[in-house]
Specification:
Blueprint lengths: L10 H12 L2 H6 L5 E7 L2 E8 L2 E7 L9 E5 L1 H8 L10 H7 L4 E4 L1 H6 L1 H10 L9
């Protein structure tokens, strides 16, 4: 199993992801207006991330109906594993490519909010695949 996938898709893995996002210098620049809640669905697991000025705050595991998210992404685990792999196959190298060409990778909710924050969101999603991202 590649290092980036260790612990995936557990809460510890997402907490390590939060540390990468919150410590990333580029995210500090491009994320200044990125304030929202977004959901991530990894197979049967779902999380809501509360983002404030490009920094991930609270992570809500297994949210109920009363936990709102403006938009989110969901896909089977195998799709996410391809995206997270060290050398992703064609179309799995970028979440925009997956949105356009991988039917199992779905954008849910308000796509306008997602696209208004496209640059920061793109950086955040790329940080999922950062080298050395582990959950020991």
């Amino acid at each position: 199993m590649p290092e980036i996938q260790r612990g995936f898709p557990g809460l510890g893995w997402l907490e390590a992801f939060r540390e990468r996002v919150n410590g990333d210098a580029e995210m500090k620049v491009v994320g200044d207006w990125f304030t929202t809640s977004l959901s991530l669905g990894f197979g049967e697991r779902r999380y809501v991330l509360r983002v404030e000025k490009g920094r991930i705050g609270e992570i809500v595991a297994n949210p109920r109906l009363d936990v709102r998210a403006s938009f989110g992404f969901r896909a089977p685990l195998e799709v996410w594993r391809k995206f997270l792999s060290p050398t992703p196959p064609p179309l799995f190298h970028d979440f925009f490519a997956m949105l356009m060409r991988v039917p199992e990778f779905v954008l849910e909710g308000d796509s306008l909010v997602a696209m208004q924050n496209a640059r920061a969101l793109h950086r955040m999603m790329n940080l999922m695949r950062a080298p050395g991202a582990t959950n020991d």
